[in-house]
Hints:
This protein is 27% helix and 31% strand. It has 309 residues and is of the alpha+beta class. The protein has two domains: 3-175, Immunoglobulin-like (Sandwich); 182-300, CATH 3.30.1330.60.
Amino acid sequence: MSQTFWNRISRVRLWVVCACVLLPAGVAASAVQFGTTLSDAHWRADSSVFQCRLVHPIDQYGSAVFERRAGEGQIFYLYQSNHQFAPGEAQVVSLSPAWRPFTGQQPLGAVEVQRRDRALQLDWQRSQALVTELQEGQRLLFERVAWYDREQPVQVLVEPVGFRVAYREYQGCLAGLLPANYDQVARTVLYFGSAHEDMAEAELRKLDSLARYVLADDGVTGIYVDGHTDGVGLRADNLELSRERAEAVAQYLVERGVPSHLITTRWHGERYPVASNREASGRAQNRRVTLRVDRLDENDAPLASNTAP
């Protein structure tokens, strides 16, 4: 094998797992593998009301992660601190563990690999299939050719050791998640009927979710509440109506426990339409209160979605 190839191997600090791993049929024995020894393999649950994670560190590679943010579905991804896979289609296989008599292997399909820290990602349905395999004590194997040599197979192994215990803790975290995350409440729009400040139940539920988020996140620095109307009626009356709407929203938040000093209330009447007032549908969009939630920089936010596990 060329010196250039070995120089590449040295630069990315590859760790070749011993041949005790059961390989899928047709896979060359020379595949470069990343995994964690059984004595060190474990799962941990990272829990908060903002996000739940179930993390499996993988030596010299990164980690396998099940994750669910407040207000969103569960995903699974491989986080690679040591980039290995070439972009393209990776194969996913379920394998019997080393301590169990060989009972075969089960292909679980293909998944697209992208050249980024999250090498591959699966949605809720497919991630739940992986949960089932791990709960049954199966290992997971992800295979793709290397980015530095398209003739070199690379495999990442995920062990089931300690999964069941950590998964119970993870499920407990899921039960306590907020109904929405910051991205979902940062820009909220409430709609009103014609000529009044009363809110429908669906709009009140939006406010309830926003209030719960604000009360949980110490990083929130302010909430801006802006009232608007459609163009029907006198301008002075519309300005007053937009004030009443904005103040009604602010009062609702205060009644739900949001500190009043965080809230800035403004009203604009018909001045800033977002649609034509000539159409009923446009007027319905203009009868609104918008809320903007400001908080500290995302790097200081709790369990930010782009942080490494």
